[in-house]
Sequence to fold (59 residues):
Amino acid sequence: MKLSSHIRNAKAELSKVIFPTKGQVKQAYIAVVIVVAVIAAFLALVDLMMSSIMSAILG
Fold:
């Protein structure tokens, strides 16, 4: 295949792509930040509990 046909095919495929709107990007960003914050808080809580248990055991 020639380079020109690859470029033509790439342009055709790119025209089929549906890009997200600003609102969708913002909503996804907020969702990711919330999920990461919740998981970080959960892991911090588990770490605190485990370190408290270990310090109580090891005295």
Remarks:
- The chain has a mean pLDDT of 95.
- The radius of gyration is 25 Å.
- The longest helix spans residues 22-58.
- The CA atoms of residues 35 and 41 lie 10 Å apart.
